[in-house]
Write a structure and sequence with these properties.
14 strands, Purple Acid Phosphatase, chain A, domain 2, 6-stranded mixed beta sheet, Flavocytochrome C3, Chain A, domain 2
Length: about 475
């Protein structure tokens, strides 16, 4: 997902809200029992963005995880256009979605076009055999040549990845802004190539990018000025000047270069400062002009107020998911009537399997008491409280062994595997239970970061967590 708010500071401060793809998934791999749940979540995302006023969307390769028919259906339901100038239906040879959008934004006429990379995996084409992708660079060049005389500004929603976005800026003149996606590159400071501003946020929708663009009294070709770089140079200039002033103060009104002529260390330092100040001042001369831009990231955290109507959409989604999972559980129980299969044996035939904390507590009483007081022991309940215990992507980090070898897949067999237990870190314990000692004793940092990663737990500190465990505060 690469969502960008582009604010053009004219008289009325007009705003464009854009997204360059991979909204619906971050992978092509989707098991059949997850598909219905993902479709409901995709519906929620599309409905919410429609309510939020998204201006244009270019689908990425992962957005096709539910199939092209699903995306076509959604494109006909929402009020914002799907744009992809080089994505073709193989049978009809027609474009799957729109080519571009020309929109009046304040006093400007803005063209927004969409393209997708043709360098996709065989997995994508095997799942979408009816899709054909034309050369994105040739497509963009031909389109820009038609648009540049008709509009004031051209924006490309490019689902190609950063290296190809740079190539696009070099090969196709006339694009003013590239909102990129696919590689999930987090560009705090935009890249400027051939007078084209390239922006991109990271993935997972953790933050929204905002590009403020000042176009007052500006004519093409734009002389682009980065306000953040200018501010950085001005700050550097201030530090240098402060230190130079210190030498002037010491020289008591005299020329400091003459005053310190017999003090080689001070003289060398002063000359170095004056030289650096000159370099900074020379650079600042290039930061004069009418077209200023500033790029910032807005964290999508708890400080963002919830919209009541969007909250209603989310609550409806949660209720739908609860009904769906209950129905699946009921059907699963009917199919398994009369069969006796332990959850651990479900996915781990012939190898070690998960046994649950009841087996661990018999020998590890001290560790069990410590664990029982920890947040890990209440991990599954936290899902229940937030009504997310039906979310299959959440269950893996709030239980042991979900969809792992030796673990479980069916939700009706979850009972003894709820919460983050000993085996979450130490691995399946069936062989260790038989006292042959086969268990992971030293837990690697990578094990913790499978769940406590930047996306799910941005404030997690591994060193502090380890220290807390070693001091007996948690486990």
């Amino acid at each position: 997902m690469a969502t960008y708010i582009k604010k053009m500071r004219e008289k009325n401060g007009s705003i464009l809200f854009l997204d360059a793809g991979d909204l619906l998934s971050n992978s092509f791999y989707l098991s059949s029992h997850k598909k219905k749940g993902l479709e409901k979540k995709a519906d929620l995302i599309m409905k919410s963005l429609d309510k939020m006023g998204l201006d244009a969307f270019t689908p990425g390769d992962f957005d096709f995880i539910l199939g092209e028919d699903y995306l076509i259906k959604k494109a006909n339901e929402v009020n914002f256009p799907f744009l992809s100038a080089n994505l073709i239906d193989r049978e009809s040879t027609r474009q799957l979605f729109g080519t571009c959008l020309i929109k009046k934004v304040g006093n400007l006429k803005v063209a927004i076009l969409g393209i997708i990379t043709d360098q996709l995996t065989q997995k994508f084409f095997s799942q979408n055999p009816n899709l054909l992708i034309k050369d994105p660079f040739a497509t963009a060049k031909k389109l820009v040549q038609k648009l540049e005389k008709r509009v004031d500004l051209i924006i490309a929603l490019s689902h190609q990845g950063l290296p190809n976005d740079k190539k696009l800026a070099r090969q196709v003149s006339g694009i003013d802004i590239i909102v990129g996606a696919h590689t999930r590159s987090r560009l705090r400071e935009p890249i400027v190539i051939n007078n084209t501003i390239i922006v991109q946020t990271g993935g997972k929708g953790q933050q929204m990018g905002r590009l403020d663009l000042n176009l007052i009294n500006a004519e093409k070709p734009f002389h682009l000025i980065s306000l953040s770089r200018k501010a950085g140079l001005e700050k550097q200039q201030g530090y240098l000047q402060k230190e130079i002033d210190h030498f002037y103060k010491k020289s008591e009104g005299n020329d400091p270069l003459k005053f310190f002529k017999d003090d080689k260390v001070s003289l060398d330092r002063l000359n170095d400062l004056l030289k650096k100040r000159g370099v900074v001042e020379e650079k600042l001369k290039n930061f004069q002009g009418d077209v200023h831009y500033l790029n910032t990231f807005i964290p999508m955290g708890k400080k963002i107020k919830n919209d009541p109507e969007i909250n209603g959409f989310i609550e409806d989604y949660k209720q739908d998911m609860l009904k769906l999972r209950k129905k699946e559980l009921s059907e699963s129980r009917k199919r398994m009537e009369g069969k006796s299969a332990k959850p651990g044996e479900r996915l781990g035939v012939g190898g070690p399997f998960f046994v649950g904390e009841r087996s661990c507590r018999k020998c590890h009483k001290k560790e069990y008491k410590m664990w029982k007081k920890s947040r890990h022991a209440k991990a599954y309940q936290s899902l229940v409280k937030s009504k997310r215990h039906y979310e299959l992507e959440c269950i893996g980090c709030h239980t042991i062994g979900f969809e792992k070898k030796g673990g479980f897949r069916r939700l009706d067999r979850m009972r003894e595997f709820k919460n983050v237990q000993c085996e979450s870190c130490h691995g399946p314990g069936s062989l260790h239970r038989k006292k042959d000692g086969k268990i992971i004793k030293k837990v690697a940092q990578s094990t913790c970061l499978e769940c406590h990663n930047r996306e799910r737990d941005p404030d997690f500190n591994y060193e502090e967590a380890v220290e807390s465990i070693s001091m007996g505060k948690s486990h």
